[in-house]
């Protein structure tokens, strides 16, 4: 992967960046995504944010080598610390867990002008992001699920609710994604069949374990999830 050719998951993230946007890529690593977005005319300006020294230096070098220093700003800082309020139109966060992405958004709430689009690609636990939407008054306007190198990724696209109507998701939608459930494509089916198999293995081992309040509650939750997912994918 380089600024000429991104991975499938990062290319998919880029398809949801509005044309001509000023973007901030948080946890940018080598700054491949912001450099690619600017180089290909997707973004007019980009910030590559990185909190770890090694990746920060890699991003600086990448931007320098690409000759994109006028349009890509590499900044060191934790999460949304690297942006000013209203400075960007679109924020991308890719390759982290859903819980961490939600934490970054919560910590940086004062940096959101509420006019931004958020394009988020959690590696696991996308449900944390959907729960964050409900809590903070954002809505999911698009979702996509893809497979790359035998791994499955979800991309969620969020915008701030413009009216005061409550945004509600069912338990199944929080877990599996409201738009992904409707599409119910082959990658979605594969993901949840894999999850079902894993949950059933765990449930079987718990049924052979000593009965405690903790195991009883865990079995109850697993069975609930199994029933819910089977209803969706059947």
Briefly, what CATH class of the largest domain?
Alpha Beta
Radius of gyration: 19 Å
Spatial strand arrangement across the major sheet: 3-2-1-4-5-7-6
Poorly predicted ranges (pLDDT <50, ≥5 residues)? Answer: none
Mean pLDDT across the residues is 95
| CATH architecture heading of the largest domain | 3-Layer(aba) Sandwich
Portion of residues in beta strands equals: 15-25%
CATH topology of the largest domain: Rossmann fold
User: Which H/E pattern describes the elements?
Assistant: HEHEHEEHEHEEHHHH
- What is the number of independent domains? 2
Largest sheet: 7 strands, mixed
What structural class should be given to the helix and strand makeup? alpha/beta
The helix count comes to 9
Number of strands: 7
Give an overview of the whole structure.
This is tRNA (Adenine(22)-N(1))-methyltransferase TrmK. It holds the Pfam family TrmK. One of its GO terms (biological process) is methylation. The chain has 234 residues and is an alpha/beta fold. It folds into two domains: 8-170, Vaccinia Virus protein VP39 (Rossmann fold), CATH 3.40.50.150; 187-233. The protein contains nine helices and seven strands; from the N terminus they run H-E-H-E-H-E-E-H-E-H-E-E-H-H-H-H. The protein has helices spanning 8-15, 32-39, 53-66, 98-107, 127-136, 171-176, 178-183, 186-207, 213-233, and strands at 21-26, 43-50, 72-76, 90-96, 117-122, 138-148, 151-160. Strands 3-2-1-4-5-7-6 form a seven-stranded mixed sheet, sandwiched between helices. Strand 2, helix 3 (53-66) and strand 3 form a beta-alpha-beta unit. The model has no long low-confidence stretch (mean pLDDT 95).
């Amino acid at each position: 992967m380089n600024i000429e050719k991104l991975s499938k998951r990062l290319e998919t993230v880029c398809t949801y960046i509005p044309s001509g946007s000023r973007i901030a890529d948080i946890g940018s690593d080598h700054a491949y995504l912001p450099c690619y977005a600017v180089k290909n005319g997707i973004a007019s300006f980009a910030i590559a944010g990185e909190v770890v020294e090694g990746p920060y230096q890699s991003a600086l070098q990448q931007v320098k080598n690409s000759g994109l220093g006028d349009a890509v700003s590499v900044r060191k800082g934790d999460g949304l610390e690297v942006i000013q309020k209203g400075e960007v139109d679109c924020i991308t966060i890719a390759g982290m867990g859903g819980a961490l992405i939600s934490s970054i958004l919560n910590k940086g709430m004062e940096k959101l002008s509420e006019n931004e689009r958020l394009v988020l690609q959690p590696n696991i636990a996308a449900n944390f992001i959907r729960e964050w939407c409900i809590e903070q008054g954002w809505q999911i306007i698009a979702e996509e699920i893809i497979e790359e190198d035998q791994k499955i990724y979800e991309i969620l696209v969020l915008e701030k609710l413009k009216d005061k109507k409550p945004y509600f998701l069912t338990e199944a939608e929080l877990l599996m994604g409201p738009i992904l459930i409707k599409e119910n494509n082959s990658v979605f089916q594969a993901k949840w069949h894999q999850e079902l198999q894993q949950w059933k293995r765990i449930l079987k081992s718990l049924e052979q374990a000593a009965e405690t309040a903790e195991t009883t509650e865990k079995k109850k939750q697993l069975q609930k999830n199994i029933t819910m997912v089977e209803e969706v994918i059947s």
